[in-house]
Amino acid sequence: MAPSIDRQGYWGRPTSTLDWCEENYVVSSYIAEFWNTVSNLIMILPPICGAIQTYRNGLEFRYICSFLGLAAVGVGSWFFHMTLLYEMQLLDELPMIYSTCVFVYCLYECFKQENSISLFPIALLIIFSVSVTVVYLQWKEPVFHQVMYGALVACLVMRSIFIVTWVYPWLRPLCYTSLGIFLLGFLLWNIDNIFCDSLRASRQMLPPAVGVVTQFHAWWHIFTGLGSYLHILLSLQIRSTYLKYRPNVKFLCGVWPTLHIEPQKTS
């Protein structure tokens, strides 16, 4: 975590239980951690576009919730890093649990009848989410949240690997790309935490444009945002293939992947 040598800004003294390695109020007096804030755009704008496209495709509501859940994490993280207030920290961390529960439901219910609703897994995920929320509100220990979030991600990884190994092997590239990008973000998150003092010292000697590259928590946002977005595309590919739709990946501006799905042609 960051040393307590930061400037004071518009939002006052941080009340969050976490203060990351980026120096506070350096770029703007209104944004505590500027780069950690603006890097959340990748978790806000593309998922909103994905939700709109999913709605246009007429796909199940759960996948719209997946995209909007990721966008909610991005919005919460934006306000958290902008203010470093405890209330905004909860707005970041709790939606991480809720949205990942939606991801889990989508992936574990992908081989069911169209528009079916399974109440038992929904009940389990709601109980899990409520339990994590209650415990975390009482026991303000970030490691608890991180372990619970990691457990949900592990469920996604195991299910994804099972599906692309035994059911749809042709989806392995998308699965492993999503996983690899997410893990790269996790690696940079750990580097930012463990070597914060060294990173801060290096930024004092580097030109500002170069020092920005060492804001590894911002890179965590970028890579995990992209990895999570690709995971939703993977989940959509699996579901649409099972329902005998024709998924068509198109690249917005030749770069950003979006999924367009048409019903299977009948003879």
From TrEMBL:
GO terms under cellular component: endoplasmic reticulum membrane
Top EC class, one word: hydrolase
Substrates-to-products reaction catalysed: an N-acylsphing-4-enine + H2O = sphing-4-enine + a fatty acid; N-(9Z-octadecenoyl)-sphing-4-enine + H2O = sphing-4-enine + (9Z)-octadecenoate; an N-acylsphinganine + H2O = sphinganine + a fatty acid
Binding site for Ca(2+): D19, W20, E22, N24, E33
Pathway(s) this gene product operates in, as recorded in its UniProt entry: Sphingolipid metabolism; Lipid metabolism; sphingolipid metabolism
Keyword hit for Membrane: yes
Database matches in Pfam families: Ceramidase
Keyword field contains Zinc: yes
Cofactor field: Zn(2+)
GO biological process assignments: ceramide metabolic process; phytosphingosine biosynthetic process; sphingosine biosynthetic process
Record-annotated membrane-spanning stretches: 63-82, 94-111, 118-137, 143-167, 174-191, 218-236
Main location: membrane
Annotated Zn(2+) binding sites: H81, H217, H221
Cell compartment(s), UniProt: Membrane
Family: Belongs to the alkaline ceramidase family.
Protein name, per record: Alkaline ceramidase
